[in-house]
Amino acid sequence: MSGGTEAGPGARARSRLTVLSGPSGVGKSSVLAELRRMAPRVHFSVSVTTRKPRPGEVDGVHYHFVDAPTFHRMAAGGELLEHAEFAGNCYGTPRAPVERALAAGLPSLLEIELQGARQVRAAMPEAQLVMLAPPSWEDLVRRLTGRGTEDPEVVARRLAIAKQELAAEPEFDEVVVNADVRSAATRLLDLVVGPVPGA
pTM for this structure? Predict the structure, then answer.
């Protein structure tokens, strides 16, 4: 990759790993799409999941879609940096691409669920945890119920999980409120490529 935002002095010696998490419906996909446009040099980890693709999702771009046996083989073989079950599906971060990017000095971003963020914090205490939050709880409810792609029971379960995730805000280093996609992406970019403590 070429172009984009540079990571600043010291990035080659010690690159920054940022973990982005937030409740379903908060707009993570939209913010990350804008961030990709703004900073093509940033390494974006592509998670592995057993979830079925949603309309418009591309294998290898949005997720690596695999079946359950393949996922469990990867987890057992130590190929995943973290893995967790969320809303009945398994998600995980392939270890090798992240390690290669960090070794090359590229600022790297993982978008994972709360369980996975906690695993990364335990394994890599220097990782920066960022929560993407809605402007209000009412806004998040509107976003989830307005999707129209899931039945009411699934939406209710996602809202219950969202409450738990938002309650974990004190565990995160930074909170970015997604009231406007471009503004949220700009703030996130500042965090991803900012100076690395001790670099």
Answer: 0.81
